[in-house]
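Dear colleagues,

As part of the handover before I leave the project, I'm documenting each prediction I ran so the next person doesn't have to rerun anything. This entry is a single chain, and its sequence is reproduced below.
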Amino acid sequence: MPPPADIVKVAIEWPGAYPKLMEIDQKKPLSAIIKEVCDGWSLANHEYFALQHADSSNFYITEKNRNEIKNGTILRLTTSPAQNAQQLHERIQSSSMDAKLEALKDLASLSRDVTFAQEFINLDGISLLTQMVESGTERYQKLQKIMKPCFGDMLSFTLTAFVELMDHGIVSWDTFSVAFIKKIASFVNKSAIDISILQRSLAILESMVLNSHDLYQKVAQEITIGQLIPHLQGTDQEIQTYTIAVINALFLKAPDERRQVDVESNVDILDCPLTEMANILAQKQLRYIILTHVIRAQRAINNEMAHQLYVLQVLTFNLLEDRMMTKMDPQDQAQRDIIFELRRIAFDAELEPSNSSGSMEKRKSMYTRDYKKLGFINHVNPAMDFTQTPPGMLALDNMLYFAKHHQDAYIRIVLENSSREDKHECPFGRSSIELTKMLCEILKVGELPSETCNDFHPMFFTHDRSFEEFFCICIQLLNKTWKEMRATSEDFNKVMQVVKEQVMRALTTKPSSLDQFKSKLQNLSYTEILKIRQSERMNQEDFQSRPILELKEKIQPEILELIKQQRLNRLVEGTCFRKLNARRRQDKFWYCRLSPNHKVLHYGDLEESPQGEVPHDSLQDKLPVADIKAVVTGKDCPHMKEKGALKQNKEVLELAFSILYDSNCQLNFIAPDKHEYCIWTDGLNALLGKDMLSDLTRNDLDTLLSMEIKLRLLDLENIQIPDAPPPIPKEPSNYDFVYDCN
């Protein structure tokens, strides 16, 4: 007979005593259980004690999380969070340097636990830590020379404890003084500082900016690009990651009017406040440093760095949103002059005729003719072509950039098309407008960065005006594809679809430079696209004749079983998941895998990202598959119903799923990518005997069915399969041909 569901068998440790094996009744109050444990070891004042996990997390057991205790869990009897917080609060104020250092080390470790953090914060512990940071340097100025390692460790542990305590979201960031901000900024501004201190200082600055508008303004006044550049030029990728994260945070929170500045100004960026983000990011020095010391450094880029580069890329392109959403004012002479300049460069107009009534009509006629050659839809007033948003004025900006910086290519395209028949000309104006709109869609201009995406493109860091250069390459591709397709004006949308496919396929190869991107496009001619499409069409061909459909129905169950086994095998291998917090630091990991007999899910926290599979015995927590009640996804997940910017992100919602078990218990996941999300949701549904409904399963089923059918029909190659079975022939006139074996 199985034990009651409310009884869990655990081991409990106490220093200097043999561990106890006991059964815990989850219906009993936690205080009664602690009293029972204390009585077993003859310990008085049970209210001064608590239970905590004996693994590396050391998290306290509370009424809220006690349901996480499973059979076989090892617990430890220890001092209560309130007692521990009180003792540490006193110890970190000790006059003994060694005692203070040891206390701060313990505080840094215990602050990860929200239960302890709440108790320490209730003692005004945050204020004590900030005072220590503000006054610490002056107080130990003399000691620092003779005890520099000790002082560095002390400050490092103080900042670590501060970061961990603030990560729980209990205390508002708005409560900190300018003196504290200046002190943290001074650690970042120092040329020689301990790595751990620098890392935590950068993390604190990032959190300040992201969580408080007032602190953003104060931090922006303290930090300049010149003080951050040395950290990007170093060799420590983690420091580089935190540095770019600070830049991204300031960029993200900068008011729109502070972001939009003249990108060709001559301001010295070494002394430029980070709020003038467009200016900084457009300058060659910072871009070149990131390209040289981060992207092209002789080491692999980890996921967190890739994410920060992706965020920087998105925020940079989002500077284009204002122009993208700005309609052209047909009455604005400055804007009309840009169109006049396009015409002048293309046709090198001579001196305008005198302003007589006859010449005015002639001028209008000439303008109309030239605007038609330039490919505008509205020949009389081309300004009307730029009243649609998106792409708005951004399209006109791109056209002018192309005309000025790639003048020969611009003139060639315009003159080539103006010499063709009307129906065969590739309209430069219309093409540029639609292409700009398409490129904005591809790069998701105007959308906030995803919390989980790492998809940055190195080539966009190789040029100060990368979007404009991207456009210049693509507009020439469009003209080339138009000629290869021998397109007419009716084929415009078809050409745009082909160009989009060419651009998307070239981008997926992650070219390292714009020149490499251009050469990739050279290999993706219209003929090559047709070949790729034909190959894909053949691979995904769906035979619709009745015999083939019957064959599909017959073999589909075994294909689904094959997919199911693959999903379960992947769950047995396991996956490393990241823990995301408010600052999106991804330095905390946990691993989950299915037991080989498919009966138990093993999971547990990890100190670092694993290399290969993690053994079952190193994962402390277990969840029997039989206890799983349901698997929910997206907005139905408990951790997606909480408030916060992270939870509202669309991409995070698409990667979230939860396992519901027992009463009000859940195991929450955020998959590293869409593929892993499909693998795990499919596998969990298969374990529960439910259908696998993911897009990945549908694609795998189509692919495997198609392959299996083609294999079975190899012997029928070049033989037409009839839609109906052949007719039954008439009976023979005699059966003399029958041979009787007997």
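The chain has a mean pLDDT of 85. Residues 546-573 form the longest helix (28 residues).

All the best with the project,
I.
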